[in-house]
Amino acid sequence: MFAEERPALGPLPLEPFRYYRYGERTVHLDGCVEVEAAYYGAPPGWIGQRLQVQWNDLHVRLLAPKTVQLLREHVRAARLAPAA
What we know:
The protein has one helix spanning 2-5; strands at residues 21-26, 32-35, 38-41, 50-55, 59-63, 70-75. By secondary structure, it is mainly beta. A hairpin with a 3-residue loop joins strand 4 (50-55) and strand 5. The model has no long low-confidence stretch (mean pLDDT 91).
């Protein structure tokens, strides 16, 4: 069967499939959301509102709650150290 299907197959993607964790976050007064002790900026106008958030080891994605439209994508930041 592989010989039959081979002409229709394309090359594999260069980037591996991204697996995300999901959650919902409220945009703080400073315009950021918190994900695993790091903060990421949301677009203007979202303070006090809830956003859908997807994250993996490399990226954090902020999505509109009703349309699931991508609002912002950030490279993961290091966790903030606790204040001494």
